[in-house]
Structure formats: structure tokens, C-alpha cells
Amino acid sequence: MSWSHALKATARAGLAIERTRLEPLVALRGACGVALVIGLTLWLGSPTLAVSSAFGAFSSGIATFQRSWRPRPALALAAAGGLAVSTFLGYLAAAHTATFLVMIAAWTLLTGMAWAVGPVSGLVSTQMVAVMLVTVTLPTSVLGALQHAALIGLGGVVQAALIVLFPVRPWGVQRDALADALAAVADYARRLRHDPVAPFDPQPLMEARSAAALTPRQARRRPRQLRGYRLLAERIRPVLASLADPVVGAAPDGPERDRARDLLGATATVLDAVAHAIRWGKPVRLPPDAMAVLEVPPTGPMLSGAARRAALRLMALVADVVESSDEPVEAVTAEGAKDRRYLPRPTVPGMVPVALRALRREARWSSPVLRHAVRVSAVASCGYLLGAALPWGHGYWAPLTSVMVLRPDFGQTFSRGVARFTGTLAGVVLGGAVMALAHPGPYVSAALAVVCAASLYLLMRTGFIVASACVTAYVVFLLGIAGEGWSQTVAARVALTLLGGALAMAAYVVFPAWETPLLRDRLADWLGANGRYAVAVFDVHARPADRRPRQVREALLDARAARAAWEQSEARAHKEPVRHRGLSRGAARAAQTALSTMGRVTMLVEAHLPASDAPASKEAEEFAEALRQSLPEAVTAVRERRVAEWGAVHEALERWQDREEERPGVAVRGAELLVEALDDLTQALARRPGKPGSRPGGNPGKD
Length: 703
Description:
By secondary structure, the chain is mainly α. The chain folds into three domains: 24-167 and 351-510, no CATH class; 172-213 and 222-336, no CATH class; 516-686, Methane Monooxygenase Hydroxylase, Chain G, domain 1 (Up-down Bundle), CATH 1.20.58. Helices cover 70% and strands 1% of the residues. The protein contains 27 helices and two strands. It has helices spanning 3-15, 24-44, 47-64, 72-93, 97-113, 119-135, 142-165, 172-194, 203-212, 216-221, 229-244, 255-280, 288-293, 305-324, 351-362, 368-389, 397-405, 410-438, 442-458, 464-481, 490-510, 519-542, 549-574, 585-606, 618-639, 647-659, 666-686, and strands at residues 213-214, 343-344. A two-stranded parallel sheet has the order 1-2. The longest helix is centred in the middle third of the chain and has 29 residues, at 410-438. Its main location: membrane. Belongs to the YccS/YhfK family. Keywords: Cell membrane, Membrane, Transmembrane, Transmembrane helix. The chain crosses the membrane at residues 74-94, 100-117, 149-168, 417-437, 464-482, 494-514.
């Protein structure tokens, strides 16, 4: 992506306001929490205490808007508690420049490593450092620092209490995740009517699975509508693909294809109705016309063979969906649970060992997270020193900008750097103009700060430029409560914001962590995960009596995670101003198509797993073993830019084809398509940049 296009995309994204994502009631509740804290501390305390306490309530409110499956009160308390500790330590170190510089370096290093735990932890930790840089400028003593920290914690308690007392659409994020998953499967069914090999994005199903992970307390309080549907959607998806596929499903034309289209459309209608009911907590209204289609026609079956088996399986699954709309499906249990009916999620204390394991896993020099932590620590320290040396005052604004801008990947850092400077400039000009023209008192400044907080909460999930303007104006009005003159902030903050943004961008030039060189590794990981998934499926066809459903399921989840990692890396690499290293954009697209086809073919074969009493298949066993033996070397070849060899897999397939030449089954047809996808992958990676027609040499099975 060129710099001009990146700037245009940043401007569009930063100013876009999506009305469907606005939550006015939630924003009003968060603003009320800020108003309560500011009003009480102004009335009972002092303007300085009001400023620090308002930061606690404000930051707790921001934390509750992050995309997390944790209860919102817990997020508010965790954010306020971390901010209180951060601020108290900052006050203790702020007396001396050297000690505070060491404090900033160490604290920003830890907050940078917090991205290893997850994006929510990273964002909340970044926010802690940013607020600490502002609050420690307010004069106080050690005892006063304790008081400031306690008031910051009180702000989180107030926000958590408001969430408990005035819940707005409880379980809303879980409802949305499950409804999105069902709607995605419904949309997939509709697209299959016109395109039998339409792609499917598994991200909604992955989100729904993450949302289904619960603590024991959450499991006891979970609404009935959030039980059972996710696993049914997971099971319906491969059956839809199997029914629509022209090779293993319904015939490409004729009455069979018409019947398949009717079944796909009716399934989509039912799933959409269930998704709407789950999203808004309403009873399910099932159209009778769609339900009539999902029955065996009175004139007899119109499908045959594998297509008929897929249709009967689809009817049974949709019937389970209909039954679930009336009563809980107690027979459907979540994977990974032995005696529970939910996916276990660690409690807050249980997250400590999980977080420590994540930090140890990323404590290596090649880790993008560690490189980000070192980068943000160095930039924040340099920004603080430069800001303190310059004669403008308010030197904390430079490191604050750098901390808020820097992200582990270049794309977000660049877009946020431009957006933050633009939004900060607008916020400073707006807030400074109001302070200069109106000269508001403490209470009026507090009211204006609450309005800015409400605007931020309302527009939190929209453009970053708008959000940055709201945050900056909030800080200007909040400091106005403590008597900070507007003339001390406008020019200085604009210049220091530009300095902080420039430092953040320069840090990426001096110490980059590009995704582009890692694309081949991500592609190799995806190939390995897809291969293990295929081996697990063909193992079941080889030895049905020894089937282990958990093995297939876990392999599928690993393949989905590898695909998501590839897509994330590829999207980030697309925004980086660096050249490819052994993997051109065309080759990456072709390889992605081949691996997507490989995963889809494996899913089709999984949809026709034999019963446990079915006879064993020696041919399927030989094919699975050949794939298992060839996979590690092929993965290594992809990493090292060599041509992968699939000779043993081709030979096993040829023997299987010879033995089932007259009546090939679904498994052997799937194996044929799988080998074709592997050959396409090899061809894509062996293609030399600028020569799209070049082909790999010595690859058997391809003319």
C-alpha cells in the first residue's frame, strides 16, 4: 500500500461513524459514573483530587468498552486497580528525574509485554501508563499519592457498581457472537445456492467459541438461549458444503440441484430466524414454508447417494435447532468439558499462570511482542527526556503520544500516529478555544469534561480521529478544573504530540518488526495444521472402530487458528512499506487459495465419516500414512523456499483409485481433490516473481 493510499484510508477510517455500533445507554451510564466521581470529589475534596479521581472513572469506563468476554464490572475494577498502583508508583518516583525515567522504562516494558496476554490486556496496560504520565504532574506528597490512588480505585468501583445496578443488555457480546456465527452459516448456505464451492470465513465460529468459554459463576447465570446452538452451527456447516458440492454432493444440474438449492435456502431462513431471536432475546419465529421444505417430499426422495445422506443429516440438524428454540439441548455438550456443559474459562486468579506462560513464550528476541515492548520503552524514555528538556512545559505529552500510538504491528502504528495527531490537534484547538473565550470555572469545566467523556464512550467503536479529539478535549477541560491555563497547553501540546508521533514512527524505522518476512512461516504453519486435520479425518475412514472425535475436532480448531494467523499476518504485511522476501503477492494469493481448498475438501470428507461399525479401509490407511510421513518435510520445504515433494501421497492415491475405480466413494474423491490442492500449493510457491507461468519441476501427478 502506498503512503498516499494509506493516508486516505486512515482519514476515512478515522472519521467514519457507524451508527449500528453506537450504544447510547452504555455511553450514558459510563458518563454518569465520571460525573458522580467528579461531582463528589469537587464537593467534598479539592479540584486536584477531582482530576485524579476522574481519570480513574474515565479509564475504567474505557476498559469496559474493549472487546472481551469477561464481565464488565471485573474489567472496570481491574483497570482502576492497575491504574491506582501505576499512579502511586509514579508519584513515588516523580521526585527525581532519574528515578522516574527508570520507572517509565520498566513500566512501559511491562505494558508492552502485556500484549502477549491479549489485545485487551495490552490496551488497558497502555492506558495505565498514559494516564500515569498526566496524573503525576499534579503536586502532592506521599500521603497525598495514597489518597490519589485510592480515589482512582474508587472511580473503578463506581463504574462497576453502575454496571451491576443498571445492566444494559446483559450477555450482549455473547449474544452477538453466537448470532453472528449462526448468521454466517446462514449466509454461507445462501451463497452455496449460486456458487457450490463458495468460501467460508470461520472467524464468526471462532468468536462464538471464545464467547462460549465461561467461568463457573458465569455458567450458572448463562441464559438458556446461549446453550447448544453453537455446536449445531458447527455441525451444519460441513453438511451444507457436502450437499452443495458438485463432486460429492448433488448433481450440477437437474432436479437434484433444484432440491439442494431449496434445502439450502430453507436452512438459511431457519438459521436467520434463530440468530435474530438470540441477538434480541426474543422467541424464535420459524417460517412454516421453510420448515415444509426441510421434510422428505411426499413423492419420494429426490436425491441419491452421498447427497441424500447429506440432506437427511441436514434435516436432522435443523430439527435439533428447532427443538432448541423451545427447550434447552441438554444432550449437546461443549468440547473440552468432561462433566460440564460449557467451555471452562479461567477465573481472574486463574489467569495469573496463563499470563505468566504467555510472557515466557514471548520472551525471545524474535518475538514481535518483545520487540514492541523494547521499542515502546525506549521511545517513552526518550520522549520524556526531550519533553523535559524543551521549554514548552507539559513535557509528558510527547511520551504519552508515543505510548498511545505504538502497537506491535506497523499498520496500526502508522494509522494511529496520523489519526492521533489529527484528533489531538482538533481537540486542543476546540478545548483551548472554549477555555480562552469562556473562562469556565471548576464546575463548568467538569461539566464540559463529562460531555467529552460521554462523546468518547458513544463514539468509542468508530473513528480513531474522533475518539482522539474527544480524549484531548477531555484532558484540557479536566486540567482546567485544577486551574491549568489554556495558553499553557495549546501550542505546547501540538508540538509535543507531533514530537511523540515522530518518535513512534522513527522507532519502527530503526527497530522494525515486519510481518512480511514471516509470511512463509505462517504459510508453513497453516499447511502443517491443515495436513494434521486431513490425517485425522482419513484415519477415521481407515479405522472407524478406533475413531476419536476429539482428535478430529482439535485438529480442525488448530487449522482454523493457523488460518486466522496467516490472514492477520497477510493483512498486516499488505500495509508495510517493505518488499516481499521470497513470497510475492500473487504467490501468496495462490497459496492461500490452495490451502483454503485443502481445508474445504477435508471438511467435505469429515461430513461423511463412517459409523464405528463400518469396515476398515486399508487404502485410506495407506493414504493417511503417506500424508503423515510427507507432511513434516513439506512444511520445512515451504519455510526454506524449496519445492515440496508429494510423491508418496500420489502413489498412495493411485493405488486407492485403482481399487475403487468402478464406484469411487466420497473419501477417495476427497483424496483426489486434496492432492490437487497440494499440487496447486507447490506450483504457487515455486512460481518465480514476475513469471506467473513458471511451474515446479519434478512434481508427480501434474502434467
